[in-house]
Amino acid sequence: MTAPTASAYSPADDPQRHNRVLLHAWQATHPVLYCGRQRFIQGLRFMTEGSALDAAVYLTGNPQPVPAVEVTLFTRPESHEPQTD
């Protein structure tokens, strides 16, 4: 099973879906992007703010939590080279 692509939605428009995508990326050890660099999720912390559910993401190599909206799912660019057999 593959994780949903980051281009399919906007984290700001659908934060609950973004939280689910990040949770799946953490469980499946799928890479994410933060500040243009590929990272892996070390941990997630979910907290409620009023009626909304917010998430903080802990990434490899960074001891400070990062807001979930600043993290996107890493997708490998598709290769358009012809296959040779």
Structural features, described:
The structure is a single chain. This protein has one helix and six strands, in the order αββββββ. The protein is of the alpha+beta class. It has a three-stranded antiparallel beta sheet, covered by helices on one side. The longest helix has 13 residues.
Provide a short characterization of the protein structure.
The protein is 15% helix and 32% strand. The chain is an alpha+beta fold.
Question: What is this structure's SSE topology?
Answer:
Blueprint lengths: L14 H13 L4 E3 L2 E3 L1 E9 L2 E8 L6 E2 L4 E2 L12
Antiparallel strand pairs: 1-2, 1-6, 3-4, 4-5
Q: Flag low-confidence runs.
A: none
Enumerate the strands of the largest sheet in spatial order, edge to edge or round the barrel. 2-1-6
Tell me, briefly, the overall form. Answer: globular
Put simply, the count of helices is 1
Please tell me how large the radius of gyration is.
Answer: 14 Å
Mean pLDDT: 81
> Helicity level, as a percent range?
10-25%
Q: Which sequence of SSEs, written as H and E, runs from N to C? A: HEEEEEE
Class computed from helices, strands and strand pairing? alpha+beta
The count of β-strands is 6
Q: How is the quaternary structure best described?
A: single chain
Major sheet details? 3 strands, antiparallel
